[in-house]
């Protein structure tokens, strides 16, 4: 496939992100050829992505590639690709839990999975990490219906709920083996509950953690400190040189301003998230429950139950996390992670990429 012709595509909002969903069979099999096509489809590199589907922000420059599962333990395979906005990079180094919310409905509508009556569960293998997720959503009369009364912060209106559960994975919850590390002279907790994340008390960097994303992005001193921490933490977490990657994420923690457990400001990795990613919230939630972690002196944990309300710039995200220790004084293990998201199909049709080799102009 050259991409000169149109490509079948579904544009969907998944959680608080928006992305282009494709069947793997409709894209080139070779990664380099596929990535070149996706850059031309999304309109990258260009800060506005004016000549493609992208919305000029990392949260709206995302791609989900879905296929029938190659593993009997799953129904479908899902590859997430983060397409650079003003760069020609396409990264598969991370998952996206927000676009994940749309994978089940997309798979049913594309005929990869049959509807299971009035409610359907789809087992999804996230190819970026090999982890499994199970998405359950309404399919009244055997058809996907996104209408519903569930609202999530950062998205106007309501839609049908998509319950996403993450079975425990095999990777260590604490990649460094310690609940607290000193990185660039700043105490941090490095945690990975589906998304490599570095937790930092906002006060340790001289900010409140309640600033607007725009104000934080304008703080050059903060940006320099965060970059220093991220590069050093990436090596500690076994990720190598993370200069050109989008992980680990950095999440600043502050005491909650409402009825939440903690207030967050998350960097992806340079732009400040206007809300918080699902898997980022899963890592924050698990990190708050780790004895000796930096969140323990900041968060207000509930006295019982698994549910935590994570505050973010545009509201909150409720997530259920349970952490246990495999032995007294042993390593913490995530026992349960679940979240409710919503998703909605925006259009279903054909996208026409910018021609290959088209000249780029400033």
Automatic annotation (TrEMBL):
GO molecular function, one term: isomerase activity
Keyword Isomerase: yes
A Pfam family assignment: PrpF
Alphabetized UniProt keyword annotations: Isomerase
NCBIfam families: OMA_tautomer (NF033377)
Record family assignment: Belongs to the PrpF family.
PANTHER family reported for this sequence: ACONITATE ISOMERASE-RELATED (PTHR43709), ISOMERASE YBHH-RELATED (PTHR43709:SF3)
Protein name, per record: FldA protein
């Amino acid at each position: 496939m050259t991409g000169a012709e149109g490509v079948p595509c579904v544009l969907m909002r998944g959680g608080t992100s928006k992305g282009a969903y494709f069947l793997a069979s409709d894209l080139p099999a070779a990664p380099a050829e596929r990535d070149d096509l996706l850059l031309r489809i999304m309109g990258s590199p260009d800060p506005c992505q004016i000549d493609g589907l992208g919305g000029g922000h990392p949260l709206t420059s995302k791609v989900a590639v879905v296929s029938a599962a190659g593993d009997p333990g799953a129904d479908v395979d899902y590859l997430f690709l983060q397409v650079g906005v003003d760069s020609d990079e396409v990264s598969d180094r991370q998952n996206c839990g927000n676009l994940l919310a749309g994978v089940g409905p997309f798979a049913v509508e594309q005929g990869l999975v049959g509807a299971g009556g009035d409610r359907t569960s789809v087992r999804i293998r996230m190819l970026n990490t090999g982890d499994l997720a199970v998405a359950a959503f309404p399919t009244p009369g055997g058809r996907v219906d996104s209408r519903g009364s569930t609202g999530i912060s950062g998205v106007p209106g309501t839609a049908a709920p998509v319950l996403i559960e993450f079975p425990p994975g095999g990777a260590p919850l604490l990649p460094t083996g310690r609940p607290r590390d000193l990185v660039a002279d700043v105490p941090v907790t490095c945690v990975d509950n589906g998304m490599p994340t570095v937790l930092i008390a906002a006060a340790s960097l001289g900010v409140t953690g309640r600033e607007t994303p725009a104000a934080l992005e304008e703080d050059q001193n903060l940006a320099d400190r965060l970059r220093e921490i991220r590069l050093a933490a990436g090596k500690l977490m076994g990720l190598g040189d993370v200069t050109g990657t989008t992980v680990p994420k950095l999440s600043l923690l502050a005491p909650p301003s409402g009825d939440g457990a903690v207030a967050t400001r998350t960097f992806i990795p340079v732009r400040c998230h206007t809300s918080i990613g699902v898997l980022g919230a899963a890592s924050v939630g698990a990190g708050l429950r780790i004895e000796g972690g930096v969140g323990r002196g900041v968060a207000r944990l509930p006295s019982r139950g698994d549910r935590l309300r994570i505050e973010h710039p545009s509201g909150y995200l409720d997530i259920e996390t349970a952490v246990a220790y495999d032995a007294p004084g042993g390593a913490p293990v995530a026992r349960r992670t679940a979240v409710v998201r919503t998703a909605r199909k925006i259009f279903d049709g054909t996208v026409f990429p910018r021609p290959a080799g088209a000249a780029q102009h400033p």
